[in-house]
Amino acid sequence: MKAAVLTFPGSNCDRDLAVAFERAGFEVARVWHKEPELPAGTDIVGVPGGFSYGDYLRCGAIAAQSPVAAAVRAFAEKGGHVLGICNGFQVLTEMGLLPGALMRNASLKFVCKPVDLRIATSDSPYTNEWAVGDVARIPVAHHDGNYTIDAEGLARLQGEDRIAFTYLDTPNGAMADIAGILSPNRRVLGMMPHPERAVDPAQGGTDGSALFRSILGAMAAA
Amino acid sequence: MKARVHVMLKDGVLDPQGEAVRHALGSLGFLGVEAVRQGKVIELELSATDEAAAEVEVRAMCEKLLANTVIEKYTIEIG
């Protein structure tokens, strides 16, 4: 299975994400933001965390207009899998691939700590290794993770079982404690916490590994 | 021609930064500030000469990039 991990100017979790995919058994291609196309045979795109384009204008707004973003949009529209983490989640909402927006944390402070996530659905390529209600300890590190959506959009996410993760103790003010959401076809996941920072005991925990194993398992079964 | 775009959070959207500014004003002794909303102003220098056409163009810029219409609203001043 092939993963393509994007790099924007200001991305800083791209290497960690590539390593996490490799450890799970993926072949990984690193893709620069100016590339107009994804490598042939890409099975999943990873949009990493960081501060793409210095968070100018709004977090993720400029990256969402980059050449590679157009390729990711076309890939997703054909049913491709896309995983956006932290800034990657912000990029995916700015692209309109996921609904809602990520606002400044309610505390106005950057939060950087391990948090407990509740697995809210196991019905996705990203969460099938868990059972609903399982708790995974995964770090967050963000200033703008306060997930916001209108009431109708929230009802739709809830009704369609598209909330992937919720916080047990919300660090950022996110509506309905939302930490991660899925697209309507469940193949695009955006999440604020960093599973790629929890794949090795040296990082303080390995709870993030299940996400990468889930993806590989789902793709192998497809 | 100049255009000025004002981007503000929509009315129903909580503005944590505006709220922090309100608290800070209160602690400076400015009492009676009931609400603060914070936004941004973007100034554009345009080569267009037709105001109506410029406004259409700037509106498209707002929809595509300058504002995130999920949470923000915008107004445009031309000239």
Automatic annotation (TrEMBL), chain A:
Pathway: Purine metabolism; IMP biosynthesis via de novo pathway; 5-amino-1-(5-phospho-D-ribosyl)imidazole from N(2)-formyl-N(1)-(5-phospho-D-ribosyl)glycinamide: step 1/2. Its EC number is 6.3.5.3, 3.5.1.2. The active site is at residues 86, 194, 196. Coiled coil: none annotated. Keywords: ATP-binding, Cytoplasm, Glutamine amidotransferase, Hydrolase, Ligase, Nucleotide-binding, Purine biosynthesis. Part of the phosphoribosylformylglycinamidine synthase complex involved in the purines biosynthetic pathway. Catalyzes the ATP-dependent conversion of formylglycinamide ribonucleotide (FGAR) and glutamine to yield formylglycinamidine ribonucleotide (FGAM) and glutamate. The FGAM synthase complex is composed of three subunits. PurQ produces an ammonia molecule by converting glutamine to glutamate. PurL transfers the ammonia molecule to FGAR to form FGAM in an ATP-dependent manner. This is Phosphoribosylformylglycinamidine synthase subunit PurQ. It comes from Frigidibacter albus. The lineage of its organism: Bacteria, Pseudomonadati, Pseudomonadota, Alphaproteobacteria, Rhodobacterales.
TrEMBL record, chain B:
One of its GO terms (biological process) is 'de novo' IMP biosynthetic process. It catalyses: N(2)-formyl-N(1)-(5-phospho-beta-D-ribosyl)glycinamide + L-glutamine + ATP + H2O = 2-formamido-N(1)-(5-O-phospho-beta-D-ribosyl)acetamidine + L-glutamate + ADP + phosphate + H(+). It is found in: Cytoplasm. Pathway: Purine metabolism; IMP biosynthesis via de novo pathway; 5-amino-1-(5-phospho-D-ribosyl)imidazole from N(2)-formyl-N(1)-(5-phospho-D-ribosyl)glycinamide: step 1/2. This is Phosphoribosylformylglycinamidine synthase subunit PurS. HAMAP family: PurS (MF_01926). GO terms for cellular component: cytoplasm. Belongs to the PurS family. The lineage of its organism: Bacteria, Pseudomonadati, Pseudomonadota, Alphaproteobacteria, Rhodobacterales. It comes from Frigidibacter albus.
